[in-house]
Design goal:
12 helices; about 0% strand; 2 strands; mainly alpha; about 60% helix; 2 domains; two-stranded antiparallel ribbon
């Protein structure tokens, strides 16, 4: 059975994860002659792969991470003068997203990626390889290790049969539902507690089933409440004249039980055109 537009097979996910590990291994063994080319290959794979592409979007669009603002803050702290060390976020998800956004700069035209490393790392000898080792130790290793942990968590949830289908919700690596609602609400007056009823009967049914699933989940009461706030926000967006698929998708994928709700999420996205 081939995977539908809104679904993947367990086998597809496992193959993508194996290729991710191969790229990671190549990247950690890079030197001044191969770092940029291997990093481009790694980022291009993550960006274009059917599975890792979903994770790439989550990493690049984390609502609490802004790489440019972080760099400005480090410069003000005196990192480039050796007056302070790099200050990464304590939250693991934010830290991984920030490091990934840094690594992704390698594909930006004229970024002079290696040439910029001395602005962040003060090393003995000041050689190019020394700066690359410093970048590898401070950024690449913890980034790839953190992503590997996330992929292992996903693999543990996959059906053992490789041909079995799962929804894209299973590859959601962050649960920042409250942040998603807050971020989207700041740019739209439509994301409020649902007060307008969705007119489409099929959507009404799917939303009702999501709420039932939230109640039946093994979540803590606060998590159930947060999940229902997300569903309310989805309903409000769907009740608008022109619902934004990107908003609906972000909210649904932020549900803490998104993997279990994969079929419901796929049904909603199919109706709204996502």
């Amino acid at each position: 059975m081939s995977a539908s537009l809104n679904q993947l097979t367990s086998g597809e996910i496992r193959r993508s994860f194996r290729e991710f590990r191969d790229h990671s291994s190549d990247l950690l063994g890079a030197d001044m002659n191969t770092l940029e080319s291997r990093m481009r290959a790694f980022i291009d794979f993550c960006r274009t792969d059917k599975v890792l592409g979903e994770i790439h979007e989550q990493l690049m669009n984390h609502p609490a991470v802004d790489w440019t603002a972080w760099v400005d803050a480090q410069i003000k702290r005196g990192v480039s003068r050796g007056a302070a060390g790099l200050d990464f976020p304590s939250d693991s998800g934010q830290r991984i997203a920030l490091m990934y956004q840094w690594a992704s700069r390698v594909v930006v035209p004229d970024s002079n990626f290696i040439g910029m490393l001395p602005h962040f790392f003060v090393v003995r000898g000041n050689s190019v390889d020394a700066h690359i080792r410093a970048f590898r130790d401070a950024v690449l290793q913890p980034l790839l290790r953190g992503l590997q942990y996330k992929l292992e968590e996903i693999e543990e949830k996959l059906p053992s049969v490789n041909t079995e289908q799962v929804g894209f919700g299973v590859i959601q690596i962050f649960n920042h539902g409250g942040q998603v609602v807050q971020q989207i609400a700041s740019g739209s007056s439509n994301i409020q507690t649902a007060t307008i009823q969705v007119q489409n009967p099929e959507l009404q049914t799917l939303l009702s089933e999501l709420r039932v699933l939230a109640d039946k989940s093994n979540l803590e009461p606060k998590q159930v409440s947060a999940a229902k706030e997300l569903i309310d926000a989805v309903e409000s967006e769907l009740a608008t004249a022109k619902p934004k698929t990107s908003v609906v998708g972000s909210l649904l994928n932020a549900l803490p039980f998104a993997a279990a709700a994969a079929n419901l999420i796929a049904g909603i996205m199919k109706i709204v055109g996502g």
